[in-house]
């Protein structure tokens, strides 16, 4: 078979594969190696408050390390899976899962001994009293 005919067939088959892939009903399906949670951070006269979006992360899976000028967060979110055993097709898989980590630099030193945190409704709320003196 001449090279030109073979190349034409390869190009045709590649086009068919690309067409089939474009008809899949889910987008961006790929495992995530890790993710970074979103935060809101606020500076008050006497403290810094950080709110961390950790929806779906169990309290026992969250680790918080307080340093004088930074906060380190890490943990893991398990992949949410459907309860039914006969799921026919994945239509979308956008929720990031797996290990996460984030280090937040603070503008002022905080007192690690007086830090409080609570995990509620998928949010981790950390209150960091400023260091005295």
Can you offer a commentary on this structure?
This protein has 133 residues and is α+β, with helices and mostly antiparallel strands. The chain contains one helix and seven strands, in the order αβββββββ. The protein has a single domain, classed as Immunoglobulin-like, CATH 2.60.40.790. Helix content is 15%, strand content 35%. The longest helix is centred in the N-terminal third of the chain and has 20 residues, at 3-22. The chain is elongated. Residues 26-32 have low confidence and may be disordered.
Topology:
Elements: H1 3-22, E1 39-43, E2 47-53, E3 62-67, E4 70-77, E5 98-105, E6 116-120, E7 123-129
- Tell me the fraction of residues in β-strands, as a range: 25-35%
> What Rg do the Cα atoms give?
24 Å
Report helical residue fraction.
Answer: 10-25%
Structural class of the helices, strands and pairings?
Answer: alpha+beta
Shape: elongated
What's the CATH first level? Mainly Beta
Order of helices and strands: HEEEEEEE
Number of helices: 1
Fill in the CATH topology: Immunoglobulin-like
Cα(first) to Cα(last) distance is 85 Å
Question: What is the count of β-strands?
Answer: 7
């Amino acid at each position: 078979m001449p090279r030109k005919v073979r190349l034409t067939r390869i190009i045709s088959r590649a086009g068919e594969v690309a067409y089939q892939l474009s008809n899949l009903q889910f987008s961006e399906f790929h495992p995530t190696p890790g993710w970074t949670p979103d935060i809101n951070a606020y500076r008050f006269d006497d403290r810094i408050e950080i709110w961390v979006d950790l929806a779906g992360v169990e309290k026992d899976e969250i680790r918080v390390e307080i340093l004088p000028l930074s906060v380190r967060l890490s943990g893991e979110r398990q992949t949410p899976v459907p309860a039914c055993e006969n799921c026919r097709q994945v239509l979308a898989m956008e929720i990031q899962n797996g290990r996460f980590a984030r280090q937040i630099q603070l503008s002022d030193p905080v007192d690690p001994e007086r830090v409080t945190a609570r995990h509620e409704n998928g949010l981790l709320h950390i209150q960091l009293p400023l260091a005295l003196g």
